Amino acid sequence: ATPMSVMVGVGKAAEHGILIRQGEALQTSSKLDTIVLDKTGTITEGKPAVIAILCADGQQENTLLQLAASLENGSEHPLAMAVLREAERRDLTLSEATRFEAINGKGVTAIVNGQRYRLGNQRWLESEGINVSLSSDSLTQKGATPLFLASEGTLLGIIGVADRIKADSREAIARLREAGMKVIMITGDIQASADAIAAEAGVDEVMAEVLPEDKANKVKALQQQGRIVAMVGDGINDAPALAQADVGFAIGTGTDVAIESASITLMGGSLHGVADAMEISSATVRNIK
Ligand code: ADP
Ligand code: MG
């Protein structure tokens, strides 16, 4: 690899909104055979919205939403933003929450009006001894994420939050697959919701219910099978996996931590940037030889 041809490739990539921090990443991009894509904010817009509220017996939508928003008030998770925006849209006044805790990959908990509440995924609430008697199937079938709200011991309801896939994700993923890539979607979200989004996006494989700390292990396991792996992500959650991958691509609108952990940043956020980078890489490597 001559430094000159790499420089030309890096410049060409920049014209396409692809910022390459390490010249080596440009050369490795032509050797990739596996692309791991985060779901939320990478395949999808990352701007989820509340689409439905399912109430347990005797509960009311606005009461549940008011509580959920009071719990999420201290969180910066995209799911929290959806809940807070909907509470604001309905002009709900939030209650003070104390002893707030965000539990990575699970949900949030705090004390409101002297009672402990939890908002998060079904598996977590069940592990805390809450009997989940309400079905979230109507939400997960649509690819929405169900957020379960419970007081100490009792399920109060489910808030359904949905995120659209980016307009060009499906096309970009098809392009990657035509280039011979195995395309895998990875997410902390539950299997049913992940499957619905995966079908829409057209990926080869889904890894769902992956805890934040395990995303990097999944990338490592693929590498141990001899695969050359790119990770594409936007979140704090994705940072270790971006660093582990042979090439890490950060979404430019994502968190600073993701951008710092990746060797390439896609300014526009489109997944076409991954295929573009691979093509520029191939051209660069061909010129070298
Ligand atoms: P992703 O990999 O899709 O970015 P995370 O690992 O951040 O997902 O979260 C996994 C799951 O944990 C979410 O789908 C949700 O069920 C639950 N969760 C995480 N953070 C929150 C939160 N602030 N409020 C409610 N639920 C949450
Ligand atoms: Mg994400």
UniProtKB/TrEMBL annotation:
Compartments (UniProt record): Cell membrane
Annotated family: Belongs to the cation transport ATPase (P-type) (TC 3.A.3) family. Type IB subfamily.
Full protein name: Copper-exporting P-type ATPase
Organism: Alcanivorax nanhaiticus
